[in-house]
Write a structure and sequence with these properties.
Length: about 170
Protein backbone atom coordinates (compact mmCIF):
# COMPACT_ATOMS: atom_id res chain seq x y z
CA UNK A 1 0.00 0.00 0.00
CA UNK A 2 1.49 3.33 -1.02
CA UNK A 3 1.63 6.20 1.42
CA UNK A 4 -0.05 9.38 0.32
CA UNK A 5 2.10 12.45 0.66
CA UNK A 6 0.44 15.52 2.11
CA UNK A 7 1.27 19.10 2.93
CA UNK A 8 1.29 19.41 6.73
CA UNK A 9 0.20 23.06 6.40
CA UNK A 10 -3.19 21.81 5.19
CA UNK A 11 -3.68 19.36 8.07
CA UNK A 12 -2.29 21.13 11.12
CA UNK A 13 -3.86 22.40 14.30
CA UNK A 14 -2.54 25.40 16.24
CA UNK A 15 -1.74 25.20 19.95
CA UNK A 16 -0.49 27.65 22.57
CA UNK A 17 2.13 26.32 24.97
CA UNK A 18 1.09 27.00 28.56
CA UNK A 19 2.55 26.22 31.96
CA UNK A 20 0.07 23.31 32.20
CA UNK A 21 0.81 22.13 28.66
CA UNK A 22 4.33 23.29 27.67
CA UNK A 23 6.00 22.59 24.33
CA UNK A 24 8.72 19.92 24.58
CA UNK A 25 11.63 21.51 22.68
CA UNK A 26 13.54 18.33 21.74
CA UNK A 27 15.24 20.01 18.76
CA UNK A 28 17.42 21.86 21.29
CA UNK A 29 19.25 18.62 22.02
CA UNK A 30 18.20 18.75 25.67
CA UNK A 31 15.57 16.25 26.76
CA UNK A 32 14.44 18.33 29.74
CA UNK A 33 13.62 21.58 27.93
CA UNK A 34 10.05 22.88 27.74
CA UNK A 35 8.80 26.21 26.41
CA UNK A 36 5.78 28.26 27.50
CA UNK A 37 4.11 31.12 25.65
CA UNK A 38 4.83 30.03 22.08
CA UNK A 39 2.55 28.86 19.30
CA UNK A 40 3.10 25.44 17.81
CA UNK A 41 1.37 23.38 15.18
CA UNK A 42 0.67 19.67 15.07
CA UNK A 43 -0.24 17.86 11.87
CA UNK A 44 -2.54 14.84 11.75
CA UNK A 45 0.56 12.79 10.89
CA UNK A 46 2.13 13.74 14.24
CA UNK A 47 4.70 16.20 12.88
CA UNK A 48 5.10 19.31 15.06
CA UNK A 49 6.41 22.72 14.15
CA UNK A 50 7.01 25.47 16.68
CA UNK A 51 7.03 29.22 16.12
CA UNK A 52 9.90 30.20 18.40
CA UNK A 53 10.73 33.92 18.40
CA UNK A 54 14.24 35.21 19.17
CA UNK A 55 15.73 31.71 18.97
CA UNK A 56 19.33 32.92 19.35
CA UNK A 57 18.46 34.78 22.55
CA UNK A 58 16.61 31.70 23.86
CA UNK A 59 19.54 29.37 23.16
CA UNK A 60 21.98 31.83 24.80
CA UNK A 61 19.74 31.98 27.87
CA UNK A 62 19.56 28.19 28.05
CA UNK A 63 23.34 27.90 27.70
CA UNK A 64 23.82 30.48 30.46
CA UNK A 65 21.49 28.52 32.75
CA UNK A 66 23.30 25.27 31.95
CA UNK A 67 26.70 26.80 32.72
CA UNK A 68 25.49 28.38 35.98
CA UNK A 69 23.66 25.33 37.34
CA UNK A 70 25.01 24.12 40.69
CA UNK A 71 25.34 20.47 39.72
CA UNK A 72 27.34 18.39 37.25
CA UNK A 73 26.81 18.83 33.51
CA UNK A 74 25.17 15.94 31.67
CA UNK A 75 26.52 14.63 28.38
CA UNK A 76 23.58 16.23 26.55
CA UNK A 77 24.38 19.59 28.17
CA UNK A 78 28.06 19.34 27.21
CA UNK A 79 27.08 18.52 23.61
CA UNK A 80 24.63 21.45 23.65
CA UNK A 81 27.35 23.87 24.81
CA UNK A 82 29.82 22.53 22.23
CA UNK A 83 27.29 22.97 19.45
CA UNK A 84 26.42 26.49 20.67
CA UNK A 85 30.08 27.33 20.14
CA UNK A 86 29.96 25.78 16.66
CA UNK A 87 32.76 23.35 17.53
CA UNK A 88 33.29 19.93 16.01
CA UNK A 89 33.85 17.13 18.48
CA UNK A 90 37.46 16.67 17.35
CA UNK A 91 38.30 20.36 17.79
CA UNK A 92 36.49 20.68 21.12
CA UNK A 93 38.14 17.56 22.55
CA UNK A 94 41.57 18.86 21.51
CA UNK A 95 40.90 22.24 23.15
CA UNK A 96 39.80 20.49 26.35
CA UNK A 97 42.81 18.15 26.33
CA UNK A 98 40.61 15.07 25.97
CA UNK A 99 40.76 12.17 23.55
CA UNK A 100 37.89 12.41 21.05
CA UNK A 101 36.67 8.98 22.20
CA UNK A 102 36.48 10.24 25.79
CA UNK A 103 34.45 13.29 24.79
CA UNK A 104 32.17 11.06 22.72
CA UNK A 105 31.55 8.75 25.69
CA UNK A 106 30.86 11.77 27.93
CA UNK A 107 28.42 13.35 25.45
CA UNK A 108 26.63 10.02 24.93
CA UNK A 109 26.21 9.52 28.69
CA UNK A 110 28.47 6.46 28.91
CA UNK A 111 31.06 8.27 31.04
CA UNK A 112 30.54 11.15 33.48
CA UNK A 113 32.78 14.18 33.04
CA UNK A 114 35.31 14.61 35.83
CA UNK A 115 34.81 17.59 38.10
CA UNK A 116 37.84 19.28 36.55
CA UNK A 117 36.55 18.71 32.98
CA UNK A 118 33.09 19.95 33.96
CA UNK A 119 34.48 23.17 35.44
CA UNK A 120 36.83 23.69 32.50
CA UNK A 121 33.98 23.29 29.98
CA UNK A 122 31.94 25.91 31.85
CA UNK A 123 34.85 28.35 31.93
CA UNK A 124 35.77 27.64 28.31
CA UNK A 125 32.17 28.21 27.21
CA UNK A 126 31.93 31.50 29.12
CA UNK A 127 35.11 32.81 27.54
CA UNK A 128 34.54 31.47 24.02
CA UNK A 129 30.89 32.53 23.83
CA UNK A 130 31.78 36.05 24.97
CA UNK A 131 28.35 36.21 26.66
CA UNK A 132 28.63 39.51 28.59
CA UNK A 133 26.04 38.47 31.19
CA UNK A 134 27.74 35.14 31.83
CA UNK A 135 31.20 36.71 31.94
CA UNK A 136 29.96 39.43 34.29
CA UNK A 137 28.31 36.88 36.57
CA UNK A 138 31.43 34.71 36.59
CA UNK A 139 33.52 37.77 37.45
CA UNK A 140 31.17 38.59 40.35
CA UNK A 141 31.28 34.98 41.55
CA UNK A 142 35.07 34.92 41.29
CA UNK A 143 35.38 38.22 43.16
CA UNK A 144 33.10 36.92 45.92
CA UNK A 145 35.01 33.64 46.17
CA UNK A 146 38.35 35.42 46.29
CA UNK A 147 37.07 37.74 49.02
CA UNK A 148 35.76 34.75 50.96
CA UNK A 149 39.00 32.87 50.52
CA UNK A 150 40.92 35.87 51.81
CA UNK A 151 38.80 36.06 54.97
CA UNK A 152 38.70 32.32 55.68
CA UNK A 153 42.21 31.28 54.71
CA UNK A 154 44.85 32.37 57.19
CA UNK A 155 47.97 33.69 55.50
CA UNK A 156 50.59 31.03 54.92
CA UNK A 157 54.21 31.50 55.84
CA UNK A 158 56.65 30.70 53.06
CA UNK A 159 59.80 29.15 54.41
CA UNK A 160 62.69 29.06 51.97
CA UNK A 161 65.64 26.86 52.81
CA UNK A 162 69.02 26.70 51.13
CA UNK A 163 71.01 23.49 51.08
CA UNK A 164 74.17 23.20 49.00
CA UNK A 165 73.28 26.40 47.10
CA UNK A 166 69.82 24.96 46.16
CA UNK A 167 66.68 26.67 47.41
CA UNK A 168 63.45 24.93 48.31
CA UNK A 169 60.28 26.62 49.50
CA UNK A 170 57.48 25.27 51.66
CA UNK A 171 54.15 26.75 52.72
CA UNK A 172 53.67 26.54 56.48
CA UNK A 173 50.55 27.49 58.45
CA UNK A 174 51.09 30.83 60.17
Amino acid sequence: MATVEHDCRDFREEFQATIDSPYHFVDSGLENLYLVGIKYFRCKCGQELADIPAIKQLLNLIARDVVEQPFALSGDEIRFLRKRLGKKQADFSKQLGLEIETLSRIENGHLPASERTDKFIRLYYALASKDPVLLGQMQEDLDARLATWQRIMPPKKIVATVTDNEWTADLVAA
